[in-house]
Amino acid sequence: MKILSLSIALAALMVLGVAHAQEQYEFERGYPNAETSQRARDDADFQRAVTAYRFWYASVSNEGIFNGSREMGLKDNESALIAAVGPSAVAFTANSDTPYGAGVLDVTDGPWVIELPPGPFIGLANDHHQGWILDMGLPGPDAGKGGKHLILPPGYKSKPPAGYYTGASASYKVLFAIRALPIKGNTEGALDALRKVKIYPLSDPNKRIKLVDASGKTMDSTCLRWEDNIQYWEVLHKIIDAEPLVPKYFPMYGLLSALGIEKGKPFHPDARMKDILERATKVARDQMLVSAFDSVRPDRINWPDRKWEWLGLVPGSVQFETAGGIDLEARDRWFAQAIVTSPAMFRRTAGAGSLYWMSAKDSTDAFLDGGKNYKLTLPQPVPGKLFWSVTFYDTQTRSQVQTDQNKAALRSLFEFKEAPTTSPAELYVGPTAPVGNEKHWIKTTPGRGWFAYIRIYGPEAAAFDKSWKPGDFEEVK
After folding, report:
1. Are 123 and 138 in contact (CB under 8 A)?
2. Structure pTM?
3. Which of 18, 250, 294, 418 has the greatest CB tally within 10 Å of its CB?
């Protein structure tokens, strides 16, 4: 609780002065006048709302993932998707490197099992608040050898059976996501591998979830439709009402209670509170985007002479924890553009799993522009045991860029499969195809911003010790 209390104090400091920053309240004989009282109440509620928005964004974002699955006709505990996704799948920084398997489990009635066969899988389970439950596959305890992974419901008292890798959820609703690596670029083989995954309640191994191939289908698994209006708070109220309280979040539930959101009670904000809440969504969302794309933290930089930044700013953490508390800006930065958490995603050591670098600026420190053409040079070989990719995302949707090219990534297993590893790889991005390099080009849209991720799967030591260094995006006139 000490760590969380510190995090709340930091959160309060970050929003102090948002409203009427330069104005002082007026008091007479130590008492506030009527105008001061009303303004102070409004300011306090606004500050609470901004802090609450940022803290609970992960929960609402995950509900967006659940909602996207349900809109496709998939049902919790009955069906889940497998898919080779592309730009038509709108999801925060999803990629087309590996096919996905994903779905929603409801563990209200007891534990669920996710059984992986041996193979190159990367998987995890998160609770409704995007809190980490367990890893599976290569970054998990089974290390790619296969195994049964057991997800326990909140407050589970029985002794778990032997022979399972076990994780406990803080919520009834659970997101699982499994990626199958396409060995030698074999996407169909990776989809077939996902079809062999078995998901069932511990009480009935024969009651398996049906896996539905959604490759190429349009979906929206984001919270974009809610994030800047009153629906954000309505969705959050439903989450708070449906899930058990998480003790370490109690102070943050207190913030919500002051705003009229409380478990077991209706949420009907009056005109004043609705105005405050809607204003707070826009301010808080924009603050998170500044953390995501224009942070000034020195620890985001890996190479002082490059614009590439670490996406995860707390190496080895589970939930952005440090010795002094929760790193709130690191948390904001992650959830503004990405989804799910796992310590495997934040490691900075060679081995299984993957690493992420993000760039939103070109070599001149200007934000990347969908109306300009750029070239990116990657020295070869890229230090990864498995493969590498560069994926291009729309800044406003934080999802893969959408154009008539219907493509958003350049990858070593696909577009650069036949390219020599003895000379640098040259990648192109912009509205105009480079003559002779069309296969190594991603189209962008004038008038829209974009950013890019470098991913390295199975990163090696040179990815961390700075002996390997990518180029920056150079504008091509």
Report:
1. no
2. 0.93
3. 18
